[in-house]
Design a protein that fits this description.
Strand content: 25-35%
Structural class: alpha+beta
Distance between the termini: 71 Å
Helix content: 25-40%
Mean pLDDT: 94
Number of strands: 19
Order of helices and strands: EHEEEEEEHEEEEHEEEEHEEEEHHHHH
CATH topology of the largest domain: FAD/NAD(P)-binding domain
Low-confidence stretches: none
CATH architecture of the largest domain: 3-Layer(bba) Sandwich
Bound molecules: flavin-adenine dinucleotide
Shape: globular
Number of domains: 3
CATH superfamily of the largest domain: FAD/NAD(P)-binding domain
Radius of gyration: 21 Å
Amino acid sequence: MRYDAVVVGSGPAGATSARRLSEGGLKVLVLERKKLPRDKLCAGCLSARISDYLPKGWESEVLNRIRGGVLGFSGREFVEKEKGEGIAYIVDRRSFDNFLTSKSLESGAELWEECELEGFQREGSGYRVQTSRGVVHADFVVGADGFHSKTAKRLGFKKKKFFRSVELVAEGNLVDRVVIDTGVVRRGYAWIFPKGDRVSVGVASTGDENLRKVLDGYMAEHGYLRVKPISPLKGWHIPFAERPEDLHLGRDRVLLVGDAANMVDPLLGEGIYYGVVGGHLLAESVLEVPSEALERYKERVFSEILPELVYAGRIAKVGYRFQRIAFRMGRGVSLERFMELLKGNTSYKRLYLKGWLEFVKSAVGLTG
Ligand SMILES: Cc1cc2nc3c(=O)[nH]c(=O)nc-3n(C[C@H](O)[C@H](O)[C@H](O)COP(=O)(O)OP(=O)(O)OC[C@H]3O[C@@H](n4cnc5c(N)ncnc54)[C@H](O)[C@@H]3O)c2cc1C
């Protein structure tokens, strides 16, 4: 069987790539190794700026509309800010990813569930793709197969930068606020996000602490919300990019997107937004001039995604090193500005440049 593109993985990055490629008139096959709907360990928080990139009807997937944020230090001191309108949305990844995939099928893509990519070889100008259900032929292979991407490994890419993270679901109700705590773990943060009428509690870090222990201590002593675990704790990795060379975008006519490409911000580990935007950029590039797809894709990602990741990385370097100062900055205008970023009204670059003065003021306040 012959396809214009085989998309490996039906997460947000793969489902979006498949939908946009199909809408552009290409014959697309999606390979998904799990049976759908499938679970994905994730807090499911979408910054509001994603809305322009989602297919019609996405609002029905929203469990919680986030209108405010609580920035904490060590689970003991807190600063709270409220916004009238939504700054973020919480979705259940099992249902949300399934919704995105169903939209790609409505656009004409074909789905092979419980089917794995096994390998691919060059064949003329395209590829011979081996799957657990047999061989197909395609002009393009899109690797949207997540953190452990077989597609990326086949191209020789290795993951170097990532958060380790753990998460569980607990009793507790936050309705329309998210809690983010600094001062809990050395190079990262802890969170409590609503998940319907429950909460997701987790820790992400690039350091080497025992995250299970950190999370136990965090839950036991939290001064804002008492939580009682319901689900067992699970762990997964979140890759990120903070420099051009950290983005693994592909080779020849094999293009990578989402976690497979490390398209995640180094500050919070937000990957859904960048994976979805990446899917749009990838499809535009393939549809525009197929023979120059990778070059055009790189140009687009470098101009529209990379600057955000670079400046988020600079904020992360300072913010995670000086967490007490970062918390004090949150009491000023930083938290307000961050909410504007989630809505798409400002960028990490502006946040970083404006933040320096605040940083100095807060640092002086600490020592003075
Ligand atoms: C604890 C935790 C909390 C997080 N919270 C948030 C959050 O609140 N907000 C946010 O934006 N991001 C969050 N993230 C990050 C986010 O989950 C990822 O960045 C996002 O899922 C990336 O999407 P993707 O489509 O690239 O990959 P994935 O969602 O991982 O999808 C990859 C798909 O590929 C399939 N696959 C893999 N290998 C193969 C193969 N060989 N053949 C066929 N199919 C294959 C998998 O089954 C899977 O369905 C969190 C991550 C973790 C671990």
